[in-house]
Amino acid sequence: MDELPDQLVWEILTRIKKTNDRNSLSLACKRFHELDNEQRQSIRVGCGLDPANEALTSLCNRFQNLAKVEITYSGWMSKLGKQLDDHGLLILASCCPLTDLTLSYCTFITDVGLRYLASCSKLSALKLNFTPRITGCGILSLVVGCRNLTLLHLIGCLNVTSVEWLEYLGKLETLEDLSIKNCRAIGEGDLVKLGPGWQNLKRLQFEVDANYRYMKVYDRLAVDRWQKQCIPCENMLELSLVNCIISPGRGLACVLGKCKNLETIHLDMCVGVRDSDIIGLAQRSSNLRFISLRVPSDFSLPLLMNNALRLTDESLKAVAQNCSMLESVRISFSDGDFPSFSSFSLSGILSLIKMCPVRELALDHVYSFNDVGMEALCSAQFLEILELVRCQEISDEGLQLVGQFPRLCVLQLSKCLGISDDGLKPLVGSYKLELLAVEDCPQISERGLQGAAKSISFRQDLSWMY
């Protein structure tokens, strides 16, 4: 090894991905230690960083080319030592050529620390996960300095109340990935401030804290601040909306109808979504590959609208007719005690299977899917992964048909009351399945799974029934 040129040793080091292996190799000799110090570009540290600022200084002095840094204090307690503070961010900003920074559960960080990071002109990705002392002013000062920011994730940042930073980012037109989750003071109406920034946005995740927002009267009118307008979101590839209010003809409803290049759509408990929204989406998004719909049940719809709104088979049939590249479908209903019988029927679900090359199908609490549906899947030429959760209308008779599915290799069953070991008997010894995972199904035993697949996963916790 001593005769190998540095460039070749460098190439070898790049192929070692595990941190523990890299650390061990760097201790083998002085030469490897120095090369690893030069090459190491990413690091992840946590509660073991103690004392935090001194330890961080030592790491930055050793690894002087750190571009990607993740600091997480998940599970932190005061006895583990003081957390990283604003001075620690000053050390990072001064010593590292940062391009990607993630701060999780860093409760000592304030706006002062973000202002230090504003000097990192090359910073392109920032993720803040539960940094409760951060406000909108701190984020604004950062985005003013970091003009190349393409990714911004804010999760559980409860004190971010102003959104001037969002308007500033929109004017820069550099943002490609925006995620805002459970930031209580930021509502759907605030997204309009992104303005021209919608043009380059490729990925949007927006999640509202539903338990908090339904207690606030003004949230009912949040979408009214977003009047009808043209939203330039043609480059959007992935859209995820959770607990959002979709107002007809404005706001996020406009976004749904403009994403002509969309590949992934996830709508989870979004109140106000109509068939016309999904139909318009399907007609414009021929590249759609993944769709996930979690629908409020009949008894869980909040009284935010004048009349009850629900999606029907018309939505699914429009997706089936227009999205010929659809590969993954996930449909679920909320409220285990009150399932919805009046939304998607078996006919609508099967239209997706018949007309699209669906490789993965996941159904959660879909009472309309029964043994007849399982029989229909025998002709699903592309189906490889099937996940059934709380699908209580499926019996052993339907489960026994799994052996006839042409390409199925993964089957996951969870909280299904109507199936037992008898339903799995045709699979025993066939090893047709690569993986069979069973969780919390009271009539299926671990013994009944033996030999039913090449790989078996079993868990039994019936507390959900009581």
From TrEMBL:
Short name of one Pfam family: DUF7885
GO cellular component term, pick one: SCF ubiquitin ligase complex
SMART domains, per database record: LRR_CC
InterPro entries in the record: COI1_F-box, F-box_dom, FBXL15_LRR, Leu-rich_rpt, Leu-rich_rpt_Cys-con_subtyp, LRR_dom_sf
F-box domain: residues covered: 1-45
GO annotation, biological process: SCF-dependent proteasomal ubiquitin-dependent protein catabolic process
Annotated SUPFAM superfamilies: RNI-like
Protein name: F-box domain-containing protein
